[in-house]
Design brief:
The complex is a heterotrimer of chains A (about 325), B (about 300) and C (about 260). Chain A is mostly helical. Chain A is built from 13 helices and two strands. Chain C folds into two domains: about 170 residues, P-loop containing nucleotide triphosphate hydrolases (Rossmann fold, 3-Layer(aba) Sandwich), CATH 3.40.50; about 60 residues, no CATH class. The chains are: A mainly alpha (about 325), B mainly alpha (about 300), C alpha/beta (about 260).
Chain lengths: ~325, ~300, ~260
């Protein structure tokens, strides 16, 4: 018996559309849309990270810009050292910069994960409104640090002169770079889907539904949440790394609290806790920006109105309205 | 480093702290009474500053502008409470965060639409311009001193309001038991609107007062909002006393950190490096302070139910 | 009274436990033991501090003074999860379940917890037949197998109580802490549960907080009576029935 839910069909359609649009754009000689689709994929990836913590774990992090920005800066800093032939430090061992995406991604994820470990150790001791405010505050701390630390551009940001390389692929060709980001996005979605169905995922979702129940069976919610927060940050950090390569530029803006808010908006517009929610949400966001941004420079005003309407009247986001409520097996 | 300079910086810290208090008091009241986290509180600060600047420039009087800032922010607060916020009291914190984030987008972009992207300037009133001589040879801006006085008066006024008036009794009842005040037959909707407008008015006042020493521009409220969050986390959500204490602590630590840390690092580093390390660390200092408080008291120093 | 029993090491032992909230002494010098194979009932009027005491044993509250030993280990400093891992299986007075999960998945969570780490990231739980089968056994024990795939939110009150019990069983605890398991079960349900608990004592001793006096008198080997945070009497069913202090303080009002 073929048992395919409406959500699965919707997910496949979303993935397929995102994959096909850039090729259609290319055939119509409209390369701009390839970049647009790449942005959707990267924003979606950042959202996939947050959705793991927020949607599955119920952790309302308002500080994911920190990880997005850290991922970006990791790439920017390593690449700038590589281009200047200047090692980061020479003792006890020499660490040089690199322009290999795979290594850059790894570093971006490790650094974001470490940052999340430290932030999580403090913020996960609290819950509710405290958690929201504390994650926001820590992200702001890193933001101010990036502004006031002059070595890597401070307020002006840091340019990456040549897009970093990927083995066997010319990343300078937009469609190639799009395919790389698309591949990363799909892998992250697969990872989150796997986690969701695993024992770890069961404990995580139980922690969201009823923390006392989880403790009473002998599983410490704190440990599960901390691990989730770290994985979530690593995914968002990876998105930041790709974003840096897309723009060939990183700035404190990536770390700003507006970015945290926007990542959250991707997740909400698409549907909290839905696997493809961030993909739908990021696509809606970019579409909105593209259409209304062309009509008025004050498109954010209308985004605010739409967001307000979604929160007040259309809970569940796009996937929620199209595929109904979440059902567990 | 002279004693006079040190005293001046201490006064700056107190002044900054008291302005944070005007923001934090409203936030913490709204959370304590209605259980709502309001990100758009910074927008009300901005509304106050813009109203003051626009009215002061039009009428030529800072004082009319100051009155206008209170009125405009309180009115804006009352309107968003009635139109949006009241639908959020029974929602989870995620919905509250998103809806009030949406309000920020609307307020910021709306203000940009009306006033343009360039900052407005608000002059310090003639009466309060120039320095005043204080003991120990300190020359200090009269205006900043006036801000300190106003901040103290507001703190005192809030204390009297909460402890001595009927409104205060209702607010305290609302903090301890929401069902009870409804049972007492108090019109809870009106009470909520009044509390929200009160918090908004204080934020607007702070925006106007600070607007005269900084520039009045879109987005000016958000950094202050986040600092106010730090204050509340340190002081304990819902506690006015905690927010006063937290505000002064954050104001002083931030100001003194920026003042002292670069000099401190100069003791054992070369000057340019010391300045950058010192200022980078100073910018993080209050967050480190917050983290330390969280380790010791996860619910804040003056938490109501510690 | 209990001195003859001291030869056998108690599974759970509270020594001079105090806990106050402000001026209210919720737990006032409580000492009690739970011996292997017994059902020790804790009774007392509303507000006597039974739930506060249970929460100190389960680890939600920590006592101001005194110690709680479980399997001869001091529980001080161990959190709720650690105590559950050590073998304290509790049920809640008001059902506490993962409401979006099915009954089966609620039990699977408990089985997964007893099997060791939850840091397994890859194998889907719903394809883990061993885990499902193991959980099914406990659902069968409480006669809930036909409701296995219903979300907990959609179960009736009585079914949720049964599910709580199945979860407690799945933890294979060394002692049960049952906080008013009969609450809201109706006479039929209570009777069935009484029979069930009577057998359960052979698996592990039970500290039973209960208002249903028929059940308590039918099941308990020993009864402790808690009034205003103090234990006014501990003894067998007969001793408690005839104890004048108990009749005055407690049974006098109830019966």
């Amino acid at each position: 018996m073929l048992n395919v839910s409406r959500e699965t069909i919707l997910n496949c359609l979303l993935a397929l559309t995102l994959l096909v649009v850039p090729f259609i754009a290319l055939s119509l000689d409209e390369p701009f849309y390839v970049t647009l689709a790449t942005r959707v994929a990267i924003y979606a990836l950042a959202g996939v990270g947050l959705n793991l913590a927020l949607g599955l774990g119920g952790l309302i992090s308002f500080g994911h810009a920190a990880f997005f920005g850290i991922g970006g800066y990791a790439v920017g800093i390593l690449a700038s050292h590589a281009l200047n032939y200047e090692p980061h430090f020479s003792s006890p061992f020499e660490l040089e910069g690199t322009t290999q995406m795979l290594i850059l991604w790894l570093v971006a994820m490790i650094v974001s994960g470490l940052a999340a470990l430290i932030i999580g150790l403090f913020s996960l001791r609290t819950s509710g409104v405290y958690f929201i405010m504390i994650t926001l505050a820590f992200a702001q701390m890193i933001y101010y640090f990036a502004i006031s630390w002059p070595a890597y551009g401070g307020e002006d940001g840091l340019s990456i002169y040549v897009r970093n390389g990927f083995p066997g692929v010319n990343t300078l060709i937009p469609i190639n770079f799009f395919l790389i980001t698309f591949g990363v996005l799909m892998s992250a979605l697969f990872l989150v889907a796997t986690l969701r169905n695993s024992r770890f995922g069961a404990a995580l979702q139980a922690a969201r539904q009823n923390e006392d129940r989880l403790s009473a069976v002998g599983i410490k919610p704190f440990n599960i949440r901390l691990a989730t927060f770290v994985i979530s940050a690593m995914i968002t950090g990876l998105a930041g790394a790709l974003f840096a390569d897309l723009n060939r530029f990183v700035s404190p803006n990536m770390l700003s609290w507006h970015t945290s808010g926007e990542i959250m908006v991707f997740v909400i517009l698409g549907g909290v806790g839905r696997l493809f929610g961030p993909v739908a949400g990021a696509a809606l966001f970019i579409l909105f920006e593209f259409i209304f941004g062309g009509l008025t420079e004050h498109w954010m005003f209308f985004l605010g109105l739409v967001l307000l309407a979604v929160v007040l009247f259309a809970r569940g986001g796009l996937i929620g309205s199209l595929a109904g409520k979440v059902r567990y097996d | 480093m002279t004693a006079a300079l040190l005293i001046e910086q201490l006064l700056n810290g107190v002044q900054f702290g008291l302005m944070l208090f005007l923001m934090a008091a409203g936030l913490t009241l709204v959370f304590g009474v209605m259980g709502l986290i309001n990100l758009a509180h910074g927008s009300l600060y901005m509304v106050g500053a813009f109203a003051c600047a626009a009215v002061a420039n039009f009428t030529g009087s800072f004082w009319i502008g100051l009155g206008a800032s209170l009125a405009a922010a309180a009115a804006a607060g009352a309107i968003i409470e009635i139109v949006v916020i009241r639908r959020l009291y029974n929602r989870d914190h995620l919905d509250q965060v998103l809806a009030t984030f949406a309000l920020i987008l609307i307020f910021s972009e709306g203000t940009r639409w009306v006033f343009g992207s360039f900052p407005l300037f608000l002059d310090v009133p003639e009466l309060l311009s120039g320095p005043v001589s204080l003991p120990f040879g300190v020359q200090y801006s009269i205006y900043r001193l006036a801000i300190i006085v106003i901040g103290c008066l507001v703190a005192l006024g809030l204390y009297l309001l909460i402890t001595k008036t009927r409104l205060g009794i209702r607010i305290r009842a609302g903090e301890s038991d929401r069902a009870m005040i409804a049972a007492l037959g108090i019109d809870i909707r009106t009470l909520y609107t009044i509390v929200f407008a009160l918090g908004a008015g204080l934020a607007g006042l702070a925006g106007a007062l600070v607007g005269a020493i900084q520039s009045v521009q879109v987005g000016m409220g958000e950094p202050v909002l986040i600092l106010a969050f730090v204050v509340i986390v340190i002081g304990g959500i819902g506690s006015i006393k905690g927010s006063l204490f937290g505000s002064l602590l954050v104001g002083l630590v931030d100001t003194m950190g920026r003042f002292l840390l670069p000099s401190f690092f100069k003791l054992f580093m070369d000057p340019s490096q010391a300045t950058s390390v010192g200022s980078a660390l100073a910018s993080m200092l209050i967050y480190i302070l917050m983290a330390l408080v969280l380790v010791v008291k996860p619910k804040g120093l003056f938490s109501a139910n510690a | 009274m209990t001195d003859n029993n001291l030869a056998i090491a108690p599974v759970l032992e509270l020594r001079n436990v105090f806990k106050s909230f402000g001026a209210l002494k919720a737990t006032d010098d409580v000492s009690l033991t739970l011996l292997p194979g017994e059902i020790h009932a804790l009774i007392g009027p509303n507000g006597a501090g039974k739930s506060t005491l249970i929460r100190q044993i389960s680890g939600e509250y920590s006592p101001d003074h005194g110690s709680i030993h479980f399997l001869e280990k001091d529980l001080k400093g161990s959190g709720v999860a650690a105590r559950a891992q050590m073998g304290l299986g509790r049920t809640f007075q008001v059902s506490s379940l993962a409401l979006e999960f099915s009954a089966l998945r609620n039990v699977m969570l408990a089985v997964q917890a007893t099997e060791g780490t939850s840091f397994r990231f890859f194998k889907p739980v719903m394809k883990d037949q061993d885990l499902i089968d193991a959980a099914m056994v406990f659902l069968q024990e409480v006669d809930m197998q036909s409701r296995a795939n219903i979300p907990a939110a959609e179960l009736s009150h009585g079914e949720r109580r049964k599910l709580e019990m199945a979860i407690a069983l799945a933890l294979k605890p060394k002692a049960f802490l049952l906080d008013e398991p009969m609450a809201g079960m109706g006479p039929e349900g209570s009777k069935a549960l009484t029979v069930f608990l009577d057998k359960l004592r052979h698996q592990a001793p039970i500290l039973l907080v209960e208002h249903d006096m028929d059940a308590v008198f039918a099941l308990a080997d020993r009864i402790s009576v808690l009034v205003y945070g103090r234990i006014v009497a501990t003894g067998t069913v007969d001793e408690i029935r005839t104890n004048p202090a108990v009749r005055e303080a407690y049974l006098g009002e109830e019966v």
